[in-house]
Design brief:
Layout (H helix, E strand, L loop, with lengths): L1 H19 L20 E6 L5 H11 L4 E6 L19 E5 L2 H11 L6 H15 L17 E5 H4 L3 H12 L5 H11 L2 H8 L11 E3 L28 H7 L3 H9 L4
Parallel strand pairs: 1-2, 3-4
Antiparallel strand pairs: 2-5
Length: 262
C-alpha cells in the first residue's frame, strides 16, 4: 500500500510538471515588429464579448512598431480566414469566453432583459457566430496551434500579469517594463475606463486597426461606453433556469466542453 501511494504521487507530480512547464527556449529580444522581414501586422480575431477590447489595448502597448488589427467573427461581416505567421513569426491572437457569460454579457451590452426570448435570441446569435465559416472554433477543439493562440477570458480579465506572461510565451519575446506598467495601471484599470467613457464629451471611435506606439487611451482602444458592464469584468450571475435555457443549445454545450468550461 505504501509503495502504491508513492508511485501514484510520483505519477501525479510528473503529470503536473508536463502540464505547467514553459518552453525551454530563450526569449528572442523585446516584443515588437521593427525587425520583421515579412509583415508588421499583428492580427487579433475574436468573438464579441470575449475580452477582445482588453486584449486589443494590451497589444497596442506591448508590441511597439506593430500595426495591430482587431476583427470579430461575424456573419454579417464575412472575411477570408487569415493564417499566420504575422508580426515576427507570431500566431493570430484569439480570445474566448465561457458561452454562458458571453451571452449574459452581450445582453448587458445591448441593455436587454434576460427574458426567455432575449436569452434564446442571443444564444442563437452566439452559436451562429462561433460556428460560422470564419470562426476557428468547433465542437472538436478549442486549442492552440502554430497558427493561432487562444486566450481564455477567465484567465486574464483580472490579472494583467497572467496575460503579459502568456503573450511573452506565445511570441517568445520580452515585453518592456514600461509597457507592462501601462498595461497594469491603465489598460486594466477597468473602473477608470468605465468612468472615462461616461464623461461628458467622450466620443466613441470604432477602432479596428492602430499603430502600436506605447501610448494608450480608452478612445484609442475603441472602448464603447457599454463595453464595461456593471460587473466591471467579473462573471455575470445567472439563475439555474437561465443557465439551463442557454444550455438547451447542443452546439453551445459542445463548445463549452471543447473549451473545457464544463
Amino acid at each position: 500500500e505504501i509503495y502504491f501511494h508513492w508511485a501514484a504521487m510520483l505519477m501525479l507530480l510528473n503529470t503536473c510538471a508536463r502540464v505547467s512547464a514553459r518552453p525551454t527556449h530563450p526569449a528572442q529580444g523585446r516584443c515588437n515588429c521593427s525587425h520583421s522581414n515579412t509583415r508588421n501586422l499583428l492580427l487579433q480575431e475574436s468573438p464579441p464579448r470575449s475580452g477582445s477590447t482588453l486584449m486589443y489595448g494590451t497589444l497596442l502597448v506591448a508590441f511597439p512598431d506593430c500595426i495591430v488589427k482587431k476583427e470579430h467573427f461575424r456573419l454579417k461581416e464575412p472575411h477570408a480566414r487569415h493564417k499566420g505567421p504575422w508580426a515576427h513569426g507570431g500566431p493570430i491572437v484569439t480570445t474566448v469566453r465561457d458561452p454562458l457569460d458571453a451571452v449574459a454579457s452581450a445582453l448587458s451590452f445591448l441593455d436587454q432583459p434576460r427574458s426567455t426570448e432575449s436569452l434564446r435570441r442571443e444564444t442563437s446569435d452566439y452559436r451562429n457566430v462561433m460556428y460560422s465559416a470564419h470562426s476557428p472554433f468547433d465542437a472538436n477543439g478549442c486549442f492552440n496551434s502554430s497558427e493561432r493562440v487562444i486566450f481564455k477570458y477567465e484567465n486574464f480579465w483580472h490579472s494583467p500579469e497572467a496575460l503579459l506572461s502568456a503573450l511573452e510565451d506565445a511570441f517568445n519575446c520580452k515585453i518592456d517594463a514600461a509597457a507592462k506598467a501601462v498595461v497594469r495601471t491603465q489598460v486594466f484599470n477597468v473602473s477608470a475606463v468605465f468612468e472615462s467613457t461616461h464623461t461628458t464629451g467622450y466620443k466613441y471611435m470604432r477602432t479596428r486597426k492602430g499603430l502600436s506606439d506605447g501610448d494608450w487611451s480608452a478612445q484609442k482602444a475603441g472602448a464603447h461606453p457599454r463595453h464595461v458592464s456593471a460587473t466591471l469584468g467579473a462573471p455575470h450571475a445567472l439563475s439555474s433556469a437561465q443557465r439551463d435555457l442557454i444550455l438547451q443549445d447542443s452546439n453551445v454545450r459542445a463548445l463549452r466542453e471543447a473549451c473545457r468550461y464544463m
